[in-house]
Amino acid sequence: MSFSRPLRRSVSLSQARTLRLVVLGQGAVGKTALTVRFITKRFIGDYDPTLEMIYRHTAVIDGEMVHFEILDTAGQEEDSLQIEEKIKWGDGFAVVYSVTDRCSFDEVMRLCFLINHIHSSPKRSGGSDQPPVVIVGNKKDLQFDRMVSCEDGENLSKALKHPFYEISTRDSYEETVVVFNTLYNELMRQGHFSPGSFKRRAVSKLMEKIPKMHANSTLNSGGRSLSFNSFRDYIPE
Q1: 87-146, pLDDT tens digit by residue?
Q2: Within 10 A of 63 (CB to CB), how many other CB atoms are there?
Q3: What would the CATH number be for the domain defined by 15-231?
Q4: Which residues, including other chains, have CB under 8 Å from residue 197's CB and lie 6 or more apart?
Q5: How far is CA 98 from CA 107, 137, 151, in A?
Q6: Which of 57, 91, 114, 218 would disulfide-bridge 20, Cβ 3.0–4.6 Å?
Q7: DSSP letter, residue 52
Q8: Distance in angstroms (rounded) separating the CA atoms of residues 147 and 100
């Protein structure tokens, strides 16, 4: 997957594909750090673990404009209706655990089961494809605190039949990009994108309450950031 052609004001945002991704996992596993690293290339280690945010990000990928809407979930205990609404909202999912937290690893199987159960619909690509899920083992840089081996992650990946990446959000921007590239490529293969632009998306009342942050990072084929601007700069008048 390559990033190309700078984003121009003359390009119609309403014609772009919209990709909804949900980042799931227990609290303090690095979900927000992963999302912000992907969008801005910056690593920020301290966040309020109780906050949720939908990050809106537009990029030109393989010559085509794509809207990313990335829901960064809080990872706190919530009722079944709330988690179901968030999973229904998503097209693809990154399920994150920390290699320093065995409980967060054990939570991955439950979350993957919920995703597959909630999205079990014959309308999705003829009923043959489940939504793409990537399992992410984060914080591999904390080797002395490790409680989950890479082999554990690989075995879970094989059992659940989902791609697996062990990464360090702190040390590597490129590793975070691989996670989101994998979801993008699988959704392209399935031909399953949410239609319409940011402004035209229908959402539930629960999802409307989640704060949104607008940001653009236009990247070249080498992945280098050319600009980071307020999203409103690119909304056609």
Answers
A1: 999 999 999 999 999 999 999 999 999 999 999 855 544 445 789 999 999 999 999 999
A2: 9
A3: 3.40.50.300
A4: 13, 14, 16, 18, 67
A5: 11, 6, 14
A6: 91
A7: -
A8: 5
- Buried b / exposed e across 80-91, counting CB within 10 Å, b at 16+? eeebebbbebbb
First-to-final CA distance of the chain: 31
* Rounded (10°) angle between helices 150-160 and 102-118: 10
Beta strands in 25-104, from DSSP E residues, in sequence order: 53-61, 64-72, 92-98
Element (H, E) at 158: helix 150-160
Q: Single out the residue of 177, 221, 168 nearest to residue 57, CA to CA.
A: 177
* Structure confidence by residue, pLDDT tens digits, 23-52: 999 999 999 999 999 999 999 888 887 889
Q: Work out whether the CA dihedral 45, 48, 51, 57 comes out positive or negative.
A: negative
Report residue 104 as tokens: 């967060």
Q: Which CA distances in Å does 75 have to 31, 59, 122?
A: 9, 27, 29
List the one residue out of 187, 188, 180, 179 whose CA is nearest residue 130. 187
d(CA 36, CA 19): 17
Adjacent-strand bridge partners of 23:
72, 94
Q: Which position has the token pair 């619909």?
A: 121
SS3 218: strand
Tokens, residue 168:
């360090």
Distance CA 217, CA 229 (A): 7
Burial class (CB in 10 A: 0-12, 13-18, 19+), 73: buried
Task: Measure the CA–CA gap between 28 and 172, rounded to whole angstroms.
Answer: 18
How far is Cα of residue 95 from the mean position of the Cα atoms in its chain?
9
